[in-house]
Design brief:
signal; Transglycosylase_SLT_dom_1; peptidoglycan lytic transglycosylase activity; about 65% helix; hydrolase activity, hydrolyzing O-glycosyl compounds; globular; 39 helices; mainly alpha; Lysozyme-like_dom_sf; Serine Threonine Protein Phosphatase 5, Tetratricopeptide repeat
Length: about 775
């Protein structure tokens, strides 16, 4: 769950409306699909156009094959660790002649010699052995990039048919689809797109939805095309493919079907425009959403649609960090019909706008609005849940804990999803603890463990129940709970807290009998039974690496490790290859999939093979130098860098933060002025400069805030907000400070860095 904190920006009222409209649209679409399968008199006519006309359409394949979205395997020569375009390629010695030819052919395709590489791979294919999929895929890719789509489609046919058996199979399916589209074969394009969409992957999904829609249109399957376009435009509204799909949807909407019926999906209809705008807001396209919905409702919109438009505008403006303008837009929805459900959702969002201002008087206005929402006569449990939770958080932020606890009490009994119910139960229990009601807190925390045993905060409930029991004088029961948490998942935030609490108990700890250990987790040194399939997978990957194709070797290992998540040998081979290639996120995914239990419960010795990959002390010299004289544990900075960029000096966030410690250029200049340097944005990619500035910034935060938790929170949420938190609940101690951070992102951020620092200390035996 997302522990007590700010509800995601979407609201359940919007989700209900979206679901209803999508259900209606899907019903129409499925009806249309069935209709399209009827005899010719009932189906829409296929769209027939010349190749020249198709090329001018935005939903058609681009003029150059390389301008289409391409999978990673097709881009290794441009932005990965393969051969840069235009360079002469060589292969290492000591490999078989057939593998040498395959490696040369792959590198030729990736470096721009498409036809030559494809021809070399075609010649090598009969002798390719277990590398036949590599030869076939890059032969097809070379032909596709050379503009010979029919030949590419034929070359990829065999590999496409066994896509699930090769690490290049899904990419072959995709390139075959693009080849079919370029070859003007809509029926083949549609079949390939539908096969790919059976297990979609987000980065290429928009392009496939578009290809499927265009192919269905050309085949006269109008309702199916509209269904594909609906998915594309509402699920991926900010993509380039969605823009092209919008043009196709508008064309379909303007053309009556063969029976004279109206469009099943009209992107310009007011209700659809509202859905599109809301989807844009949710996917980071607030500016585009505002362009769709002007301040004054367009002609022909009903009052209800105009009110909804104001509501969606408010959400978009809030996303743009314009709380005053958002407040006024929400007011439009309230004024349209003050007693409507939408109006109460708008009041809830107005309260959130007021919360942004940091002014005490605005907070009071927000509290009043939330109380008004909770007093509404209508039964809307999702709305009551977010309103009661936010009211409790706003009151707690200002130190009004008794009122906050009363507000949290209104969360009980609401019909909401389990994750939302768990958030409310956790918040209510913590507020009981804060107000000194230890018996009530203990009872609610015990109930939490019973109701939500698998929740992310289950260990938190056990830990805080132990704290409540200790305050009630029941130290031995408390120690039993802490031992359960510390023994069950010692490498977690609450595992570390529980271990520290146990260490403070003295004689009581010795009287507690530990629970018997559970099943040992799978760790990197697990003994593996012999497996011919695993041996073959490893041999294939190592051969690719020996042939000078390390990126392909890593892709092959990732595929094999995902297919056999219980094999420690495959997982470790992929983790090493991914780290060598700078793909730390891929390495982390594999580590959690195979060794998740070990990462939570393993001993330092068991975790040692993963240490350098997952918990590196990279740039140690720069970190230690920057910390000189500060007294700050270097492991805190390693943990901070790990969280911010995972040690990637080239990292850039969506907000524009740069480098290892994710500094905004303006912040870096302000800090640099204080320490005597004048950094430009380009300088922030230099690890030495970035760490020096980032550490200086963190030292400044720590000196200002006075505690590690508050300093970390300030690094993430800003000093002004943390000043409010310090004034409201900073006096409760560092542990409760973390629990009461109202922002889910910031609270999780503080916990993760605190936990990582603890794991660093254990793995490196405290030696900095």
């Amino acid at each position: 769950m997302k522990q007590p904190g700010i509800h995601p920006f979407s609201d359940r009222f919007g989700a209900v409306i979206l679901a209803l409209l999508l259900t209606l649209g899907l019903a129409l679409s499925w009806g249309g699909s069935a209709q399209a399968a009827k005899p010719a008199g009932h189906a829409a006519k296929p769209v027939t156009q010349t190749a020249k006309a198709r090329a001018a359409e935005p939903w058609s394949p681009p003029p150059r094959p390389e301008d289409a979205p391409l999978p990673r395997s097709a881009r290794l020569g441009g932005d990965e660790d393969g051969t840069p375009a235009g360079r002469t390629v060589k292969t290492p010695g000591g490999i078989t002649e057939s593998l040498r030819e395959i490696a040369l052919g792959v590198n030729e395709v990736l470096s721009g010699d498409h036809r030559q590489g494809a021809a070399r791979l075609a010649a090598a294919l009969p002798r390719a052995g277990d590398q036949a999929d590599v030869a076939a895929y890059y032969q097809g890719l070379g032909l596709y990039l050379a503009g010979d789509a029919p030949a590419a489609l034929a070359a990829l046919d065999g590999l496409r048919a066994r896509a699930s058996q090769s690490f290049l199979g899904r990419d072959a399916l995709y390139i075959a689809m693009e080849s079919a589209a370029r070859a003007g074969r809509p029926e083949r394009t549609l079949a390939l797109a539908e096969a790919w969409l059976a297990d979609p992957e987000p980065s290429l999904a928009p392009a496939v939805w578009l290809r499927a829609a265009a192919a269905a249109t050309n085949l006269g399957q109008r309702r199916k095309a509209e269904d594909f376009l609906r998915h594309l435009i509402l699920d991926f509204p900010t993509s380039q493919s969605a823009k092209a799909g919008l043009a196709l949807a508008e064309k379909l909407a303007a053309t009556p079907d063969a029976a004279g019926g109206a469009a099943g999906f009209d992107p310009s209809a007011p209700d659809t425009v509202l859905l599109r705008a809301e989807a844009l807001v949710e996917k980071g396209g607030a500016e585009a959403a505002l362009a769709l919905i002007p301040e004054a409702a367009p002609p022909g919109w009903t009052p209800a649609q105009a009110a909804r438009g104001g509501y969606v505008r408010g959400k978009a403006l809030f996303r743009q960090r314009k709380p005053q303008a958002a407040y006024e837009a929400f007011a439009q929805a309230v004024a349209a019909d003050p007693s409507a459900s939408l109006a109460y959702w708008a009041r809830y969002h107005q309260a959130r706008c007021l919360w942004r201002s940091l002014k005490a008087e605005d907070a009071e206005r927000g509290v009043a609005l939330l109380r008004e929402v909770l007093a509404a006569p209508t039964r809307d449990d999702p709305l009551k849940e977010v309103a009661a939770r936010h009211l409790a958080l706003m009151l707690a932020e200002r130190g009004r804990f008794a009122e906050a606890s009363d507000a949290a009490g209104q969360l009980k009994g609401l019909a909401v999803p389990p994750d939302a119910a768990a958030q409310g139960a956790a918040l209510g229990a913590i507020l009981r603890y804060v107000t000194g009601d230890m018996a009530g807190a203990e009872a609610e925390l015990a109930a939490f463990a019973g109701r939500f045993p698998d929740d992310d905060w289950a260990d938190g409930a056990r830990y805080w129940r132990g704290k409540a029991l200790a305050n009630l004088g029941r130290g031995q029961e408390a120690a039993g709970l802490w031992m359960e948490v510390a023994g069950g998942r010692p490498n977690t935030y609450y595992g570390g807290r529980a271990a520290a609490a146990l260490a403070s108990l003295g004689e009581v700890k010795g009287q507690v009998v530990a629970s018997p250990p559970g099943k040992s987790p799978r760790c990197p040194d697990a003994a593996e039974p012999p497996s011919p399939a695993v041996s073959a997978a490893l041999a294939k990957a190592y051969a690719l690496a020996d042939a000078g194709l390390p990126a392909l070797a890593e892709m092959a290992l990732e595929f094999s490790a995902k297919a056999a998540p219980d094999r420690a040998d495959l997982a470790m081979a992929h983790i090493r290859a991914a780290m060598d290639g700078g793909r730390r996120t891929a390495a982390m995914r594999t580590a959690w999939r195979t060794f998740g239990g070990c990462l939570l419960r393993g001993t330092p010795a068991e975790l040692m093979p993963l240490r350098d990959a997952l918990y590196p002390r990279a740039y140690a010299g720069e970190v230690v130098t920057a910390l000189n004289g500060s007294g700050i544990d270097p492991d805190v900075i390693y943990s901070l860098i790990r969280q911010e960029s995972f040690f990637d000096p080239k990292a850039v966030s969506g907000a524009g933060a740069v480098g290892l410690m994710q500094l905004m250029p303006e912040t870096a200049k302000a800090v640099g002025k204080k320490i005597g340097i004048r950094p430009e944005r380009a300088d922030l990619f230099n690890p030495v400069v970035n760490i020096r500035l980032g550490v200086a910034f963190f030292r400044e935060r720590l000196a200002r805030e006075g505690s590690l938790a508050a300093a970390l929170a300030s690094y993430n949420a800003g000093e002004n907000r943390v000043a409010v938190w310090n004034a409201g609940f900073g006096g409760l101690g560092e542990e409760l400070f973390v629990e009461l951070i109202p922002f889910t992102e910031t609270r999780d951020y503080v916990r993760r860095i605190t936990t990582n620092a603890m794991v660093y200390e254990r793995l490196y035996l405290g030696k900095n």
